[in-house]
Design a protein that fits this description.
It is globular and about 45 Å long. 37% of the residues lie in helices and 22% in strands. It is of the alpha+beta class and 174 residues long. The chain has a 5-stranded mixed beta sheet with strand order 1-2-5-3-4.
Amino acid sequence: MKKIFILALIFAFTSSALAQRVDYDKKLKELGIELFVPGKPIANYVKAVRTGNLLYLAGHGPTKADGTNTLGKLGKDMTVDQGYMAARQTAISLLSTLKAELGDLNKVKRIVKLTGWVNCEPDFGDQPKVMNGCSDLLVSVFGPKGMHARAALGANSLPLGMAIEVEIIVELEE
């Protein structure tokens, strides 16, 4: 009987712990992040497509709430630190679209894959350091659910002269 009581307590504690939801609005506020209403796509595509329990977000740039983007080329007129901050801003843009699409970031089961392009000079080789700006923010927000597979690539140019472009694949709760 004592074992059954202990197992019941463990089950009750585990169930309540699993049932707790993260208040992502509060988490974002603690991190000093304000999401914004995403703008419309700049060409003939949609910002998000869901198939099954996967949500594919189209390429996003380092767009700010006012609709402007961080422009520049790494290795020419931007430093690695500036690129890192542009990638961080891109993560905020992605999160803004994700929240607009889902209504609630608790529907995110995990960030599966991130593909990032860095607008850079041919001899620039620090794309992974730059893309950490995006990856670090996603992990700060989602914790272990934010860990993802990733590709960090160099590009000789990006749309509108943006410094960064990132697309992500997100697994959703059923």
